[in-house]
Amino acid sequence: MAEMVRGKVEMKRIENATSRQVTFSKRRNGLLKKAYELSVLCDAQIAVIIFSQKGRLYEFASSDIQRIVERYRKCARDGKNNSKIDKQLQLQELKNEAESISEKIELVQLSQRKLLGYGLDSCSLDELQEIDAQLQRSLFLIRARKAQLYKEQIEQLKEKERLLLEKNARLSLKAAAHGGAAALGCRSSPSCEVDTQLFI
């Protein structure tokens, strides 16, 4: 005889009061049994509290339920406090990072102004020499880049010139070949001979 397969139970409130009470009793007992087995097999501290629809209390605890509940409350309080402290630390870190970035931006802007020649009155001789060295390095890099671009443009122009010369040579050869063929055809034609004799 084939084994009967139980259908999947739809997760919604059971409307029939009798069926609802029967299901509650079965599942309550199953839940308490599983809690007991878990506490024995895994040496875990477990507390289960159930209130029925009519307000009747059912409970299971692997040890003193008051101690387990108090332990839960303490862990919940500690978790909230730790979470609050973590958020405060994160906010402080973000604030410090924002201040550091702001200071760096101010230094960069001040350095740019000095490179442009503004605000030099407060600079010492060493600072002016450093600014001069930075400008010399920047000028060297700019000139090197310009020279590279000029060289690339010259190479491109030379390549275009070479292609144009090759194209011109091909056209010249084609024109010469076409002209030679026309002259050869004229010499082989009787009308060309008559015209020549009349011209003489």
TrEMBL record:
Domain K-box positions: 91-181
Keyword Transcription: yes
Gene Ontology terms for molecular function: DNA-binding transcription factor activity; protein dimerization activity; RNA polymerase II transcription regulatory region sequence-specific DNA binding
Compartments in which it is found: Nucleus
Domain of life: Eukaryota
Record keywords, A-Z: Coiled coil, DNA-binding, Nucleus, Transcription, Transcription regulation
An annotated GO cellular component: nucleus
CDD domains for the chain: MADS_MEF2_like
Any one GO biological process: positive regulation of transcription by RNA polymerase II
Domain called MADS-box: residue spans: 4-64
Primary localization class, coarse: nucleus
SUPFAM superfamilies: SRF-like
Organism phylogeny: Eukaryota, Viridiplantae, Streptophyta, Embryophyta, Tracheophyta
Coiled-coil stretches noted in the UniProt entry, renumbered to this chain: 84-111, 147-174
Name of the protein: MADS-box protein AGL42-like isoform X1
